[in-house]
Known about the structure:
The structure is a single chain. It is built from 18 helices and no strands. By secondary structure, it is mainly alpha-helical. The termini are far apart. Helix 16 crosses helix 18. Magnesium ion (MG) binds near residues 77, 81, 106 and 200.
Amino acid sequence: xxxxxxxxxxxxxxxxxxxxxxxxxxxxxxxxxxxxxxxxxxxxxxxxxxxxxxxxxxxxxxxxxxxxxxxxxxxxxxxxxxxxxxxxxxxxxxxxxxxxxxxxxxxxxxxxxxxxxxxxxxxxxxxxxxxxxxxxxxxxxxxxxxxxxxxxxxxxxxxxxxxxxxxxxxxxxxxxxxxxxxxxxxxxxxxxxxxxxxxxxxxxxxxxxxxxxxxxxxxxxxxxxxxxxxxxxxxxxxxxxxxxxxxxxxxxxxxxxxxxxxxxxxxxxxxxxxxxxxxxxxxxxxxxxxxxxxxxxxxxxxxxxxxxxxxxxxxxxxxxxxxxxxxxxxxxxxxxxxxxxxxxxxxxxxxxxxxxxxxxxxxxxxxxxxxxxxxxxxxxxxxxxxxxxxxxx
Length: 393
Ligand code: MG
């Protein structure tokens, strides 16, 4: 801390159980503190400058990038998560910079074509340890970004890495060392990580309603069977009977986000008041998360989720795109795994490096890293270049 001007106080107004620089478990490669920023501001800034972050712009959330200019992409989704998470963090006197860092990084490991892409790559990797986008996000910030002279990855703080790793199997947890330990000894992550996880849910539930309606795959009448939606819809219709349809939808979506945020802040606020954790360690040792929706909101939230799963994510038009995506990912994996010399030289080098260390498993992992890093359009182009003789290589 000694190199910082003493008037800078990053912790002003934060709760005693918030994550702050002084209680951080630090970085894997120790570095001097930044001059004018907190450690978590630096993490956030490193994420924004990462190549994987820029690629989020051309990766599918639900709708493939070329389907329309107004749909959410992984990038706009991540920015919406950050907005919601920061509001909650500030209201609960938690570390907003850490929250923002976790939110912006949480989907860095997503494959092209959203969940269809992840499922396809997981299937390709079934004999080689599988593929999981959440673990891959950690791999991106720990290993795959090549930006700094002194270390691989972004060398983020422990608490940011812990927030990125939302879930993890016992086997993977054991391999991950310190950042996986909480899954084995059943501890909680910091509150900033807990709240960003729920901010993700609030964001996608709300924006998928908006995108689904815009695409015409779901309708208002169907959504009116879902109480969480219907309450907001009725209220908007009552207050603004003359409002055109598109603005009604926007008004309902913004109220959907707001009512969930308010519920989360209030419920978590009373949990924190009731259990009064003395510090971050007490938060970690608490038997359950201290950031939560009320029972009622959790139930209504689930109803909306179930609706979106059956009516939107499994809609035949979404499914058609998923099946095409699956084929692209599977065929790219097969081609590159069987014959790594089809890969660009830099990727060939990575395959050779990991193969030397881990044999076939290493080779498969390097191919999966290459494919997971692709944007939707790059994957489609690369598939054509590999399989279509009429296409230039
Ligand atoms: Mg997400």
